[in-house]
Amino acid sequence: MCCSGQRMVGLSAGIGVVFWWSLIAVAVPPESRVAEVLAEAESWLQTSPEAPGWAAYLQTEVLRAQLARGAQADWRAVMEILARYSADVPGVDTGPFVKVRNALADWLAAIYAPSREELPQASREAKRIFMRRTPTDLYEARLALHAAVERLESRLQAAGPEAERWRSYLKTEPLKAQLARAEPDLRELEDIHSRFAAGYDSLGLVCFADVRRALRGYVLTARLMADGTLRRQYESALDGLASHLQTYARTPAPEDAAGISRHLRWLGQAGQAPWLVAAVQRTLSHPNVYVTVSDRLVAARLSRSVDDVSPVEDCILGTRLYGTAHTSGQVRGVLVPCEEQALVDALFEGTSRTENVGYNGPATIYSSGNTALAARKRLYLNAEGVFALPAVSSAVTSTVIHQIDTGGRALVERIAWKRAFRQKALAEAIASDHAEQRFNYRMDQQADDLVARANRGFQERFRQPLDERGLFPEYFRASTTPETVTLVLMTTGATGLGAPTAPPDVPGADLTVRSHESSINNLAAAALAGVFLDERRFDEIATRLLGLPENKEKPPDEENWAITFADEQPGTVRFADGGLRITIRGKRYMNEGRQYEAMDVAAQYRIEKTPQGFRAVRQGDLEIYPPGFVPGTGRQLSARQIALRNALRRRFGRFFEESWVPENVVIGKDTPQPLELRLSRWDAFGGWLVMGWEQVTPRKP
């Protein structure tokens, strides 16, 4: 695991390259990276007499031909070349070759396309390509760790007084000192990693999580380089993965999905078969959240009557006009078909009547106008937020001149009337243009404030909290048809699976949500695995993540229990047979300085429809047992386990109430015209939870 002096000289330069490369690499096609490192390897080989032999063995000309095909390359040919770069051949583990190998593996991950039925066999066949961990891999892991530490330091510099406490607790200075050494102390790095992995809620932020993952990656790479059993473990993981894939292909059960995710996670941590990991996730995962909003709901939210009186000040053909405008009409919301984002037009149709007094030289002109107005303000929604285009309008103005006062000078008055009639058509055209400009400005002014509030809510309540913890859905698409707005999301985490099938077709309501259990399970795994939470924070997380009703009941005592979630499947839901099952897995519980062993807590609910609406009714008592415990097999709980079980029943009973009645949804609660929605459908089957809401007819005052 030692770095040569030559490598240490280039380390600081390499850190900068990796830091900036990490910011832009997403946009670089993987085949471009292959071409880059292949050129470096050929330059390194050009003075060697062995260059022709290596080019023939590594099939360099075949690789060039595939690179020329870009994304249309034959993945079988690329896999064969990768097998040669990964073979147990002396010299192939040299740095330039290892870089090509790693880039080839990333490229293969983008183009590898076995069918669903071929995945089990593909898993077994992956055994022929074993990517040994080399000093080059360790060097690149070190660069990645340096870059992550630099990003964390940049974030801490903006954190104020809190930053020093984090630096002290996380030992960032000792970490930097270790990275400055030729051979960092792995035990010291593992100790520092344990602090980043302590599970405190704030450590889930991306800036901390990146360092935690990079630390683990570096230490794992160093350990794996010396692990003579790694290939055997790799082959065992592939066999286990193939078995789960075969069973999952017949019946996509949650247990097999969890097994697949576990093996994919091991492959990722060991730096093996990234092409297989990507292919499994890509092939077996469908989007797992669908939200549809009806055109009726959009129209109800945007439609309103306009009755507005405002002052008018204008200048047309040298005449200064002062008066009032009475604008009346109707705004309605219309969906615009689009597959790339959701488009909604706020359309206005109405009239603006004006009473004006104009001044031009000695003449005072009394007139009225009638302007027919049609305007459009286009709104759009995508993964970045809610936005609006400038309003556009069309106005046609007709005017009537009632009187021209010239102070009794008849000749001047006759000239003024002739001039007014001669310029009337031009004046009306100019008035139409000015009316459009005024209305566009007012429409933008009113709508842009609402759009800014909507976008702020989207960012602060949805996008930003998820981005900060690396939890934003991997796939987010908004679209519109003339009848619906549809949001389609997929969240898988690093190695999870999405929904195994497309969502069920259900009659549309004003608001419909179809959520597969994988969406919540993957999010819980990414957000809660190994995390330490006290009871108060758990209350908030349970409400926001698992969808439990807000807990208004006070704790049974003043104690503040805490939980450290399990590393795998920390929180899961199951949707089936008209019910839902929620399971919380804690590997440790703490209270008043005492630590308690692992315990799982589960609640089973059945969805019922009553004359008053829907409710979820808990079936029996909470199920609280140690991991792996099967009731009725003769195994007994210890006295300590029974005491913990009773304590947890009291604590979790506050969250898992005997019955749960969803409250009505109110859209625009703080606006003059809020919309109330009542739950009209609630069902759970085949892994999907389906909920639909209809508008509540407002009560007449």
Outline the structure in words.
It is a single chain. Strand 5 and strand 6 (385-388) form a beta hairpin. It is globular and about 110 Å long. The termini are far apart. Helices cover 44% and strands 27% of the residues. The model is unreliable at 1-26 (pLDDT under 50). The chain has 21 helices and 22 strands. Strands 11, 12, 13, 14, 15, 16, 17, 18 and 19 form a nine-stranded antiparallel β-sheet that branches. It is of the alpha+beta class. Helix 2 (30-45) runs antiparallel to helix 6 (95-111). The longest helix is centred in the middle third of the chain and has 45 residues, at 424-468. It has three domains: 5-284, no CATH class; 294-459; 491-683, no CATH class.
Helix content: 40-55%
How far apart the termini lie comes to 78 Å
Q: Count every beta strand, where a strand is a DSSP E run of 2 or more residues.
A: 22
Chain-averaged pLDDT: 89
Q: Quick one: overall form?
A: globular
Which stretches are poorly predicted, pLDDT < 50 over at least 5 residues?
1-26
What number of structural domains do the residues give? 3
Radius of gyration (CA) equals 33 Å
Strand content: 25-35%
| Number of H/I helices | 21
Major sheet attributes: 9 strands, antiparallel
- Please identify the structural class as seen in this structure: alpha+beta
Q: Topology, please?
A:
Layout: H1 5-24, H2 30-45, H3 51-57, H4 60-69, H5 75-85, H6 95-111, H7 119-125, H8 135-157, H9 162-170, H10 172-179, H11 186-196, H12 206-225, H13 230-250, H14 254-270, H15 274-284, E1 289-294, H16 295-302, E2 304-316, E3 319-336, E4 342-360, E5 363-382, E6 385-388, E7 392-405, H17 410-422, H18 424-468, E8 475-480, E9 484-490, E10 511-516, H19 517-528, E11 532-534, H20 535-544, E12 562-565, E13 571-576, E14 579-591, E15 594-596, E16 599-610, E17 613-618, E18 623-625, H21 639-652, E19 659-660, E20 665-667, E21 675-685, E22 688-695
Antiparallel strand pairs: 1-9, 1-10, 2-3, 3-4, 4-5, 5-6, 5-7, 8-9, 10-22, 11-12, 12-14, 13-14, 14-15, 14-16, 16-17, 16-18, 17-19, 20-21, 21-22
Helix pairs in contact: 1-8, 2-6, 5-6, 6-15, 7-13, 8-12, 11-12, 13-14
